[in-house]
Design a protein that fits this description.
Strand content: under 5%
Distance between the termini: 130 Å
CATH architecture of one domain: Alpha Horseshoe
Shape: elongated
Number of strands: 6
Largest sheet: 2 strands, antiparallel
Strand order of the largest sheet: 1-2
Helix content: over 70%
Mean pLDDT: 88
CATH topology of one domain: Serine Threonine Protein Phosphatase 5, Tetratricopeptide repeat
Number of helices: 44
Structural class: mainly alpha
Length: about 800
């Protein structure tokens, strides 16, 4: 093929080939240029270098470059751009050093543009490190500074293209100080200059400065383009997500930017529309987000995902799942591209539903079956589309299965992930901790540390929650007159020190979990120190943790003092803690005062279902402990149906009547809960057996004890045996008591023998009393022995 007689035709053909990225035709043009002698022309050779580079064939570009008899600055610049665009940035920067040193060829503005682009690409590939709270790409930054210095030396830094390229390089390196210096020194700025700096501030968490810059553009007479507006809207979305400014204020700014986009004719720009959907959703206006979505001429995966996540974020996960079904239907019809983000959004919606679901007991553990079933269906679809191994999908599955109470599925999802991030490790740990498998959670934490993996604040929260769970199972010991759970306390202190060394001790989630752990371990002084140290960022979670700690440690007065001192609005958990304190103090009037505050706030009608149930149960418990079963009955009667009554509600009322020895009411309530379709659990039977024992209904107690497993599938625990022992003992059937104790499948402990000895004392049975005392001495610890001697002495005193 003849190229034509003049050089312009040859160059035009090569440039056209570069635009179309047609390497096959490029080789033919190169061959023709060699045959026709055109290759000797420096302009033709330069065009060929540029063309081969754009086609991705650096070997051919370098061959043409090396074969040139002489080269000019255009030759070197074309090669540098080729290297920069094909991930050979180091070679591009080496060429900048060589061109003047080896050939005496001085770089021009376009050469420095190519070099700056190489630095930008290096920064994009570099991991970087955190310096003063910013991610900085030091390697790329040092090279960018070198290029900038040379540009200044050659007086090329004032060129607008060089300045813009250096500005972009500094932004990508994470050095906003240098970027701003370049920007401020520019005599003339284009929309590219403004946009690069705005994006830099947004990406580095300085959204307010970014929005300020956008406002200043108009003052300087520079109109923003679509990319500038995308950056500005993104800044609003980030501010709303991080709660740096009120959502109402950010929403107003976002609407102004939206109007500006419409005025400038960018409303149909897909990137602007997607960012607007995301921004409106994060600001809490899903109506506006949906409106933008509906007006879009076409939708991408980003559009769908932003809207789906928006509905979940704003408490409407069911709409997210409806959108997911529509999205899948669209995909089946059109075979559009699908991203893992779609499944992440759907799984997050299931997670949101799971947090609200009460769950049902399966094998003794609460499982959220409805959410679990939906999650499994989405998991199956993710597997079908090959997205189940995506790291974000995997982490979302671990979180969801953990929240639903299915740790077997969570563990399997974790094991299938090809790569584990700190998010996936944290999700698995939290799942085990929340599902009462603290040992498994701590084992995962140990594996993390053994593998040298980085931990974050969430890792420490999970580990601390695990030790809090273990503390609930540990028997407390008397230390300086206080009950302390020494083992868990020691581990909590060690973890606290570890968090301090890692810089996470001041994280509010870590600190509030520490307050909870120390409280549960009986070290309220440590809990109080952590609480006081967080004075500048204490939220309602801190107050609740400390109040509950005091209430559970029988320091109700301190708990109620804290409740009165709260410097933030109390939530449902705050009132629950206050009611627990009232119950521990047997303070009926204070309980009524707290109840009045709850009613004035309308919490029993406006809160979520789970919160209403919690408040109802707390009120019942407080009134029952105060001995006011009439008030407890009124609270119970006010609960409309099974939506606001669960088994805990019934058990709380049954326990209250049991304490008051209202045996008839206890039996009536037991049959009523059966009529409501509820299945009694171990706690129900403890209350029932205590009521029968104290009411003298020995045979009724025996009937319920034997029907626990046979009729209701509940295995009797040692507490239930103690109730029967007490019942038989009260009826002076001490021979049966001894036989029952010897036959029970649990090792008798101090409680067992103290019950037997008490009955022996009442009925002056020295033989059984002596047996009980001796057995108590073997089973009990030092703290119990004093009480044993007192009971034995009382027994022999009564025999005289």
């Amino acid at each position: 093929m003849l190229l034509g007689e003049n050089r312009v035709d040859v160059i035009a053909a090569i440039q056209e080939c570069a635009r179309s990225r047609d390497l096959q035709r490029g080789w033919k043009l190169h061959s023709d240029a060699v045959e026709g002698g055109e290759i000797s022309r420096i302009s033709v050779a330069n065009s060929l270098i540029s063309m081969f580079a754009k086609c991705g064939s650096l070997t051919d570009a370098r061959r043409v470059f090396d074969g040139m008899a002489s080269r000019n600055v255009v030759s070197w610049t074309a090669l540098m751009l080729g290297y920069a665009e094909n991930k050979e940035e180091i070679l591009a920067l080496e060429a900048l050093e060589r061109m003047e040193r080896e050939e005496g060829c001085a770089p021009n503005s376009w050469t420095f543009v190519a070099a700056a682009k190489a630095c930008s690409n290096l920064a994009a590939a570099e991991e970087g490190e955190i310096i003063d709270g910013r991610l900085v790409k030091l390697g790329a930054l040092v090279r960018a500074m070198g290029v900038h210095f040379q540009a200044v030396e050659k007086s090329c830094d004032s060129d607008i293209f060089v300045a813009n390229s250096m500005l972009d390089a500094y932004v990508k390196c994470g050095s906003l100080v240098d970027a701003r210096m370049v920007f401020d020194r520019m005599v003339c700025r284009s929309v590219v200059s403004w946009t690069a700096l705005v994006l830099g501030y947004v990406d580095n968490g300085e959204e307010e400065v970014a929005l300020e810059l956008v406002s200043c553009m108009g003052v300087e007479g520079c109109e923003p383009n679509a990319r500038t507006l995308v950056a500005a809207v993104k800044a609003c979305a980030s501010l709303a997500e991080e709660k740096k400014v009120t959502k109402a204020e950010i929403l107003e700014r976002g609407r102004v930017l939206h109007c500006q986009a419409v005025e400038l004719g960018f409303e149909d720009d897909i990137y602007i529309a997607n960012t607007l959907v995301d921004m409106y959703a994060k600001c809490g206006s899903v109506v506006s987000a949906q409106r933008v979505f509906d007006r879009m001429p076409r939708h991408t995966a980003v559009s769908w995902n932003a809207l789906m996540l928006g509905y979940s974020r704003n408490g409407r996960p069911e709409v997210t799942l409806e959108l997911f079904e529509k999205r899948m239907a669209t995909l089946r019809r059109c075979w559009e591209e699908l991203t893992a983000g779609t499944f992440v959004a759907a799984l997050k919606a299931c997670l949101c539903l799971a947090t609200k679901e009460a769950g049902v007991e399966v094998c003794g553990r609460p499982v959220k079956l409805e959410s679990l079933e939906k999650g499994m269906a989405i998991h199956a679809q993710a597997r079908k589309f090959g997205c189940d191994l995506d790291v974000c999908v995997g982490s979302s599955l671990v979180d969801l299965y953990g929240e639903c109470g299915s740790m077997a599925d969570a563990s399997r999802a974790f094991a299938r992930m090809p790569v584990h991030t700190v998010v996936s490790w944290d999700g698995l740990m939290l799942g085990y901790a929340q599902n009462e498998e603290p040992d498994a959670a701590l084992e995962v934490f140990a594996r993390m540390l053994q593998q040298g993996l980085p931990s974050d604040s969430r890792s420490f929260v999970a580990a601390l929650k695990a030790w809090t769970g273990l503390a609930a199972m540990e028997n407390a010991k008397q230390v300086s007159g206080k009950l302390v759970k020494a083992r868990c306390l020691g581990r909590g202190i060690a973890l606290h020190e570890q968090a301090e060394n890692s810089g996470f001790h001041s994280d509010r989630f870590v600190a509030s979990t520490l307050v909870d752990l120390y409280s549960k371990c009986g070290s309220l002084s440590r809990a109080r120190r952590v609480f006081e140290a967080m004075i500048h960022c204490r939220d309602v979670v801190f107050w609740n943790a400390l109040m509950l700690g005091y209430a559970e440690s029988d320091e109700g007065e301190v708990a109620l003092e804290l409740f009165a001192r709260m410097d933030c609005a109390p939530d449902v958990l705050s009132f629950a803690a206050a009611l627990k304190a009232c119950g521990s103090l047997v303070a009926l009037e204070r309980t009524k005062l707290v109840h009045g505050k709850i009613n004035r706030r309308g919490l029993l009608s406006s809160s979520e279902e789970k919160e209403v149930v919690l408040l109802t149960n707390s009120l019942l418990d407080a009134y029952a402990k105060c001995g006011s079963m009439e008030d407890a009955g009124c609270v119970f009667a006010a609960t409309s149906s099974s939506t606001t009554r669960n088994l805990v509600t019934w058990n709380t009322l049954v326990a209250g009547h049991s304490r008051q020895v209202n045996t008839r009411e206890v039996l009536e309530l037991f049959h009523a809960l059966l009529d409501e379709g509820l299945r009694p659990n171990a706690v129900t039977f403890v209350c029932l057996l205590i009521a029968c024992s104290r009411g003298g209904l020995v045979e009724t107690a025996r009937y319920f004890f034997h029907s626990m497993l046979s009729k209701f599938g509940t295995l009797p625990g040692i507490k239930h045996y103690h109730c029967i022992v007490d019942s038989l003992g009260r009826a002076n059937r001490l021979d049966e008591v001894v036989k029952l104790v010897e036959a029970m499948p649990y090792k008798p402990n101090a409680v067992t023998w103290s019950t037997v000895l008490s009955a022996s004392r009442i009925f002056r049975n020295a033989e059984v009393g002596k047996l009980a005392f001796e057995s108590w001495m073997k089973a009990g610890d030092g703290d119990d022995q004093g009480a044993a001697y007192v009971l034995l002495a009382s027994l022999y005193e009564s025999k005289r």
